[in-house]
């Protein structure tokens, strides 16, 4: 019953909040109370610059930009909600420089949301008059041919706003050292295959176990200590098996955030970082997107109903990798598929009811001697029902109910199962002009079950090993928190959080406090200091996160991380932004690491604690979003991860420590619908396992990888497009060294790969 596998096999086998408050639509006025109480004057444009027509495209285009106008008339934020790249980027950049007469309620300036149409038009080329007939003895005069002059797009602000909503700021407590990436920012990134979740690999502090596989150490915390959330719903994994994409269709994703420390209070119960995906707001018009690639196909459709009062969206992906692998590797089978569905209805100007369902299935096996050996077979499903209400004075409330099912296939066609039921609620409010607060609570109940073998059919030790992971049990995790956001000076934010969780399992109870403190302090006009402190508890977890697989009875108690980081953010010329953050994380009572890098025992008893450990280092990030046709991201992590001493061994370097991790990516709009991007990945090898007790252990050879992407896009209709995409991960066919065996006659490397993922696809959107 003991399932032992090589490290490479185990790796393969392991595989919104709403943005409005005090909502009042100008197009659909509610039954009017006394006019003096609700009179609303929408914002009026005072002046605005002309957007720059993208040099890479031609034709006309309209972009709908949603802007939040502050009480002083400035634009706090602007984002394109309709329109095709690259016009959407150019339109949003232009609107950020607009100036408005603010919206007014009862004669007082208030913050508001307005939607504008930014129109891009191309001038018709004037055909020159025919040249006069040449006179005898003179060469004909060749008149100059005028270039195809492109008119700058005029803002559509003189017209009345398409939609105006009196609004409060979306209340999202943010850690100063977090990283956020929108889908538009990462869509062109080479090696990410258009998936926002896969793009987190380029961020500093994210250390890959093996190149290309989406299982990461985050500031020294192992994969099982990294939490995954989608719209605040906890999920067992965000990526399909091996090199698969994210489990949420990219068209539904608004942004992805990596919180390496002191994450927002609504996330908890993980001693490492948190990866949180947020879905986009419902679209006011029919939209659709589809993609067909060598190895999978996907589609997403969204439509408004009932005059825009309701919305429905459906999407999903299906892989047919089995057809390709049958030709190349007849003994191997890999399959994955997912689905996403969302429905919402406006119950009033300030209340929305939403239902979000999503799930994924992954399967991988190989055949040997006519017998199928399952490497990985898991699935999960989630249904989340939530109610959001925007109150007065920038308040917002959310209550939600989540039901889910996780399943993982184990040995002999048996399954481990986990029924998940969770409830959560939070309320935020303004406490004056410089203070905001949020209070919340959540409860999750996991009902585990498994197909255990008969105790009479196996030995007692073998039965206890299986029962340790798959025994029927009910576990609970409940938490409550209070967060205060203080803004004493312009640009300065101090966030303090008090959170505590209670864990129960098989009669055992543990309490985990997790206070957090973070701050942004402006030092100069374009220089800001960043600070973050936090304590993060976590119940025992298996080394590789698997759905429905975990340790019952809280053996050894909770793990803890003490997170400390400080740095600086600098706004540079040419739209560059640079951050430098130093961090030191201390880990206590960790058990979720491999004792041996080359072999892992899936059904072994709970690993003993490794004693205290630590990770420290420096993270550098330089970014430039797609503007003026060029974007760039450069990240570098210098770090050391150590496992603490125990009664039987001294402190050692982590088996998966990588001292240097460097990545650089750039995307270029080459005009006429051509886009190109490249990415370089370089990191040092693992420490040699035989030398781990040394102060300076030897290292395996470093790894280098090069990714490339090329796209040709044709725009059609107002905001649609069709693209032909060529993309490749590890086009240099580099191999990664997993171990090294040395003898008097020399050393021999055990290599992984080359892991090459080519992709040819056709993408289209409405």
- How confident is the prediction overall: mean pLDDT? 79
Which structural category do the helix and sheet elements fall into? Answer: mainly beta
- Total number of beta strands: 45
**Kindly, what is the distance between the CA atoms of the first and last residues, rounded to a whole number of angstroms?**
52 Å
Summarize the structure.
This protein has 766 residues and is mainly beta.
Fold and architecture overview:
- The protein is mainly beta and 766 residues long.
- It is 6% helix and 51% strand.
- β36 and β37 (630-643) form a beta hairpin.
- Residues 1-38 and 123-171 have low confidence and may be disordered.
Can you lay out the helices and strands and say which pair or pack?
Layout: E1 4-6, H1 7-13, H2 35-38, E2 40-41, E3 44-47, E4 61-69, E5 75-82, H3 87-95, E6 99-101, E7 103-105, E8 108-110, E9 112-120, E10 154-155, E11 163-166, E12 179-182, H4 183-186, E13 206-208, E14 216-218, E15 227-230, E16 233-235, E17 253-259, E18 274-279, E19 287-292, E20 296-305, E21 310-319, H5 321-328, E22 332-346, E23 351-368, E24 371-390, E25 396-409, E26 415-430, E27 435-450, H6 460-470, E28 473-486, E29 493-505, E30 508-513, E31 516-524, E32 527-538, E33 559-571, E34 577-588, E35 599-601, E36 613-627, E37 630-643, E38 652-653, E39 660-671, E40 674-683, E41 703-716, E42 720-729, E43 736-743, E44 746-752, E45 757-765
Parallel strand pairs: 15-18
Antiparallel strand pairs: 1-35, 2-7, 3-6, 4-5, 4-9, 7-8, 9-10, 9-11, 12-17, 13-14, 15-16, 17-18, 19-20, 19-45, 20-21, 21-22, 22-23, 23-24, 24-25, 25-26, 26-27, 27-28, 28-29, 29-30, 29-31, 31-32, 32-33, 33-34, 34-36, 36-37, 37-38, 37-39, 39-40, 40-41, 41-42, 42-45, 43-44
């Amino acid at each position: 019953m003991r399932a032992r596998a090589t490290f490479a096999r185990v790796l393969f086998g392991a595989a919104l909040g709403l943005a409005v408050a005090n909502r009042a639509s100008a197009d659909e006025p509610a039954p009017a109370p006394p006019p003096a109480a609700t009179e609303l004057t929408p914002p009026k444009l005072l002046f605005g610059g002309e957007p720059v027509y993208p040099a890479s495209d031609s034709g006309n285009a309209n972009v709908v930009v949603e802007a939040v106008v502050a009480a002083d008339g400035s634009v706090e934020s602007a984002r394109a909600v309709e329109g095709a790249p690259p016009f959407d980027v150019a339109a949003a950049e232009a609107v950020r420089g607009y100036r408005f007469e603010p919206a007014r309620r009862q004669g007082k300036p208030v913050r508001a949301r307005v939607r504008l149409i930014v129109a891009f038009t191309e001038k018709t080329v004037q055909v020159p008059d025919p040249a006069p007939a040449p006179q005898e003895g003179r060469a004909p005069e060749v008149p100059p041919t005028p270039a195809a002059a492109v008119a700058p797009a005029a803002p559509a602000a003189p017209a009345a706003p398409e939609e105006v909503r009196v609004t409060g700021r979306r209340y999202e407590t943010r850690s100063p050292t977090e990283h956020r990436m929108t889908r538009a920012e990462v869509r062109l990134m080479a090696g990410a295959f258009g998936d926002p979740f896969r793009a987190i690999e380029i961020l500093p502090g994210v250390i890959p176990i093996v190149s290309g596989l989406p299982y990461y150490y985050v500031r020294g915390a192992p994969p099982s200590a990294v939490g995954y959330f989608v719209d605040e719903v906890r999920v067992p994994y965000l990526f399909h098996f091996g090199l698969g994409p994210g489990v949420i269709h990219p068209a539904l994703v608004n942004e992805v955030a990596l919180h390496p420390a002191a994450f927002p209070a609504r996330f908890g119960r993980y001693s490492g970082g948190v990866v949180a995906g947020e879905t986009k707001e419902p679209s006011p018009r029919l939209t659709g997107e589809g993609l067909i690639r060598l190895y999978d196909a996907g589609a997403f459709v969204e439509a408004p109903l009932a005059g825009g009062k309701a919305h429905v969206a459906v999407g999903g992906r299906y892989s047919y990798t089995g057809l390709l692998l049958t030709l190349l590797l007849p003994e191997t089978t890999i399959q994955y598929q997912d689905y996403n569905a969302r429905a919402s209805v406006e119950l009033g100007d300030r209340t929305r009811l939403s239902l979000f369902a999503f799930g994924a299935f992954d399967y991988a096996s190989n055949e040997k001697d006519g017998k199928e050996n399952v490497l990985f077979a898991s699935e999960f499903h989630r249904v989340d029902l939530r109610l959001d209400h925007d109150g007065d004075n920038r308040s917002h409330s959310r209550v939600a109910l989540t039901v889910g099912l996780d399943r993982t296939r184990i040995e002999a066609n048996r399954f481990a199962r986990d029924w998940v039921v969770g409830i959560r609620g939070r309320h935020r409010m303004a406490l004056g002009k410089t203070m905001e607060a949020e209070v919340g609570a959540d409860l999750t109940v996991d009902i585990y079950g498994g197909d255990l073998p008969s105790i009479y059919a196996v030995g007692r030790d073998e039965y206890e090993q299986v029962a340790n992971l798959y025994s029927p049990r009910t576990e609970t995790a409940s938490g409550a928190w209070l967060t205060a956001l203080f803004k004493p000076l312009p640009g300065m934010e101090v966030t303090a959080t008090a959170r505590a969780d209670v864990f129960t399992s098989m009669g055992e109870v543990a309490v985990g406090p997790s206070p957090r403190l973070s701050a942004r302090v402006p030092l100069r006009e374009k220089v800001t200091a960043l600070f973050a402190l936090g304590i993060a508890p976590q119940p025992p977890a298996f080394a590789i996160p698997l759905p429905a697989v975990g340790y019952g009875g809280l053996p050894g108690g909770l793990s803890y991380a003490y997170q400390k980081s400080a740095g600086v953010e600098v706004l540079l010329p040419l739209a560059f932004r640079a951050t430098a953050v130093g961090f030191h994380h201390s880990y206590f009572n960790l058990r979720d690491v491999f004792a041996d890098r080359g072999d892992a025992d899936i059904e072994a008893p709970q690993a003993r604690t490794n004693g205290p450990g630590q990770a420290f280092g420096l993270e550098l990030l330089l970014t430039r979003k797609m503007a003026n046709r060029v974007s760039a991201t450069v990240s570098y992590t210098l770090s050391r991860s150590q496992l603490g001493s125990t009664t039987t061994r001294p402190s050692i370097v982590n088996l998966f420590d990588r001292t240097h991790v460097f990545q650089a990516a750039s995307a270029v709009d080459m005009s006429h619908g051509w886009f190109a991007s490249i990415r370089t990945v370089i990191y040092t090898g693992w420490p040699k396992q035989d030398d781990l007790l040394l102060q300076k252990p030897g290292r395996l050879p470093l790894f280098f990888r090069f990714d490339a992407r090329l796209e040709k896009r044709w725009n059609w209709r107002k905001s649609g497009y069709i693209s032909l995409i060529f993309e490749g991960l590890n086009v240099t066919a580099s191999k990664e060294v997993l171990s090294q065996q040395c003898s008097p006659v020399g050393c021999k490397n055990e290599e992984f790969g080359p892991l090459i993922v080519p992709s040819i696809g056709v993408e289209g959107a409405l």
